[in-house]
UniProtKB/TrEMBL annotation, chains A, B:
Transmembrane segments: none annotated. InterPro entries: HTH_LacI, LacI/GalR-like_sensor, Lambda_DNA-bd_dom_sf, Peripla_BP_I. Residues 323-351 are annotated as: Disordered. Residues 331-342 have a biased composition (Pro residues). The lineage of its organism: Bacteria, Thermotogati, Deinococcota, Deinococci, Deinococcales. Pfam families: LacI, Peripla_BP_3. PANTHER family: HTH-TYPE TRANSCRIPTIONAL REGULATOR GALS, LACI-RELATED TRANSCRIPTIONAL REPRESSOR. This is LacI family transcriptional regulator.
DNA sequence: TTGAAAGCGTTACCAT
DNA sequence: ATGGTAACGCTTTCAA
């Protein structure tokens, strides 16, 4: 069936009794054409089952109608959702997505940047790998998503705001003893989310001391280890803020294992609202990022960039999803009074 | 910087003082060339920073060195891992991956099949959407992964075997009262995994009755609902087999919520060994699929198919990862004697 | 061993 | 309103 050689525009032209130019015109309605001719051409296209050659189009126009997407780790549940949304959004605009996974490795990311660019993608969307040195470059326009990289145009949600509402939620519940699972440090500091959290807490008069901040990667395992570590070296916190849901869920498993009840003894807030977060026990209070909106902005910006200079979009807002992992600090269990309202704080021992 | 127009092979040829043909020959070492010339060409390539135009190559050779990958749902944690492995495996062979998500919708899948084929991918790898009617077709060679679709060449792990070892594990622990979360029914029946489970149980003399088999999709939510449903309508089982980890983890949350201890009162086994399974509480005993191996086979088969007729590879083996969610039936809690060794079975009531 | 030149299937300019 | 035709950048046959 599919062994017969390709049907070309010339075939269609012949069948319709017109020139290839005319066929091209009607196909792309790039120039006015008599209704009669139009109909003949369309009929011919139908009859022959003509499909334009993408390669030829790309060669001729210099546009591949493909975009590259470089993700740090498809195994981190936040990214599949993002990738899904980007793919969908791209498709509705006629773009296909070339996917690459950098495994959070800047070197591999660099390789991807090169190969995808050479492959002729019109634009590259990249969620920069964690160790990315500030200069992200390629031979095609670049858009950063979610994480900043130098002055690459960035589409992201307002993570600082997200961190703020997470912290504020816990403050509102009366918590005063905080610990933080910070994820990896970026640019020699802590990420925006955590910055938002810490800033809010400081302004509220309950700064988090260094020993209560655990830096690591974003993995489930890191969440476990981080929670264990915090429990051992700096117990007494009643609220735990995690830089993402993966960390939070890892922490949840460690806490539970250590016999700490959530939210009874420790309230826990995550970030991202990945699917699992709704179904953990307890379900996870978390900051939701609007991946759909991010995807839309990214594609928008990308396509603009392909044609004209771009305008940086506003950060996407985040919202707090309050679920079962957070509770007022006045719940059964040792109640360490906040340092401000009440001195004489007594650490919470595991059990 | 990148505004200067493309460096073509002609530029290189001129710089090296040779013809484009020669340049092509050295670049693809497709024909013998004098070392001297070779060196000159290479130098010119370096000097000019020449990058071949992929579009031109594709047009000329009819090969895009790209493959399409259609995934049913990137949000299901099993697939990102598979996609990652496929992308990696493809890349090492010089292939790029065009990703599409069918959202488990046959219609959308069909659309993808069309667009990707027209986009000129050399071959399409597809994990068929659940409702896929048996005839999966496209204008390019097709490889099915993980799920069968008509007589499309299939790469998959031996799911029946996986189901067998899962069931056998529970039998070995002494369980006799089984329930099954079966996932969606395919081709008017239950999937291979479940078939493997049920077959094994039947052969052991402990057939599972209809009311103990819950069909649904593969989601976390379905796992929850399924477990709840089974608990209400057909309590008394001590062992629960799930068609995948997502279902199992959903079930775990429902069981826990219902006050049923795992593995104390009910042993639970999943399928896939997704990352979360190691970190749930309790951790999940599950059947691991070797995605790496599947990816390798798929790419191998795909590339063969692009050139010559293919030979179907053997199903990839699965292995059981025993973790914390399974225990001998002789654990604290009501002990329903197996029907064969011991009649007079007493159902387990929740609590 | 190297080069000239004919395409691959489109698009788009320039005529008509 | 249409058609002829020259590119687009590469591979590959055929000659030299």
């Amino acid at each position: 069936m599919q062994t017969r050689s390709r049907i070309t525009m010339a075939d269609v032209a012949r069948e319709a009794g017109v020139s290839t130019a005319t066929v091209s015109f009607v196909l792309n309605n790039t120039k006015a054409v008599t209704p009669a001719v139009q109909a003949r051409v369309e009929a011919a296209v139908q009859a022959l089952g003509y499909r334009p050659s993408h390669a030829a189009q790309a060669l001729r126009t210099g546009r591949s109608l493909a975009l590259g997407l470089i993700i740090p780790d498809l195994t981190n549940p936040f990214f599949p959702k993002l990738a899904q949304d980007i793919e969908q959004e791209a498709r509705t605009r006629g773009y296909a997505v070339l996917l690459a996974d950098s495994h959070d490795d800047p070197a591999l990311q660099q390789e991807h940047l090169g190969t995808l660019a050479q492959r002729g993608v019109d634009v590259l969307l990249v969620v920069p790998a964690v160790g990315t040195d500030d200069t992200l470059t390629a031979d095609v326009p670049l858009i950063a998503i979610d994480r900043a990289a130098g002055d690459t145009p960035l589409v992201h949600s307002d993570k600082r705001q997200g961190g703020q509402i997470a912290a504020q939620h816990l403050l509102d519940l009366g918590h005063r003893e905080f610990a933080v699972l910070a994820g990896p440090s970026r640019h020699g500091g802590v990420g925006e989310r955590v910055r938002g959290m810490l800033g809010t807490l400081e302004r509220a008069g309950v700064p988090v001391r260094k020993g209560r901040i655990y830096e690591s990667d974003y993995s489930l395992l890191a969440g476990r280890e981080g929670a264990r570590h915090l429990l051992q070296t700096a117990p007494g916190f009643t609220a735990l803020l995690a830089a993402n849901d993966t960390l939070a869920l890892g922490a949840l498993s460690a806490l539970t294992e250590a016999g700490i009840t959530v939210p009874g003894q420790v309230s826990l807030v995550g970030f991202d609202d990945i699917p699992w977060s709704a179904l953990s026990a307890p379900s996870l209070t978390t900051v939701r990022q609007d991946t759909r909106q991010m995807a839309r902005q990214a594609i928008e910006l990308a396509l603009q960039t392909v044609n004209a200079p771009q305008v940086a979009p506003l950060p996407v807002g985040t919202t707090l999803t309050v679920r079962g992992s957070t509770a007022p600090v006045t719940t059964p269990g040792p109640l360490p009074p906040g340092p401000l309202p009440d001195p004489g704080h007594r650490p919470l021992e595991n059990a």
